[in-house]
Specification:
The chain has helices spanning 10-30, 35-60, and strands at 64-68, 72-78, 83-86, 94-95, 100-106, 109-111, 124-126, 135-141, 146-151, 157-162. 28% of the residues lie in helices and 30% in strands. The chain has a single domain (35-162), classed as minor pseudopilin epsh fold (3-Layer(bab) Sandwich), CATH 3.55.40. Strand 8 (135-141) and strand 9 form a beta hairpin. The chain starts with 9 loop residues before the first helix and ends with a strand. The strands form two sheets. Strands 1, 2, 3, 4 and 7 form a five-stranded antiparallel sheet that branches. The protein has a five-stranded antiparallel sheet with strand order 6-5-8-9-10, with helices on one face. The model has no long low-confidence stretch (mean pLDDT 88). The relative contact order is 0.17. The protein is built from two helices and ten strands. The chain is elongated, with a radius of gyration of 25 Å. By secondary structure, it is of the alpha+beta class.
Amino acid sequence: MKNKQQGFTLIEIMVVVVIAAILMGAVVISFPDSTNDRLKEQSSRFSALMSLAQDEAILQSRDFGLSISDAGYSFHRWSGTAWESYSDKPFTSRKITEDIQAEVVLEGVKIKLLKPEKIKKPQIVIFSSGEMTSFVYILTNQDKSTATIKFDGAGNLEQVFKFNDE
């Protein structure tokens, strides 16, 4: 009489482990980024683009502008007679995510952010010398965490994060 062994083969166990790993990977990928990660990403992108715009203004010997609206921001270039939209990569118009609110303090005064179509000229000018209008850009998420980006008249950047982890 033959003894029949019961149990699983190594291949069956490995197949189950692979399927479990794939399912766990899908679950991890489906979780959204934390709001603090999005806040950091938005502020870091803004800071990098502002530094790049400052460099571009110096290299092109041309004034650049920045319009900040209630929905995002866009760059402009002085043509010699008027401001024109500047959308060469990477200076395309950017939107901030809906869970993040923006504030701008322009030379010490908090300004009301308008709809993009209502803005006629940039609020911030980046001169061909590298100097710029001093301003503070404050991003706040739903958790009331903030990213504060300060630019002084010389174009120096200071970035401060305050996270409210609940």
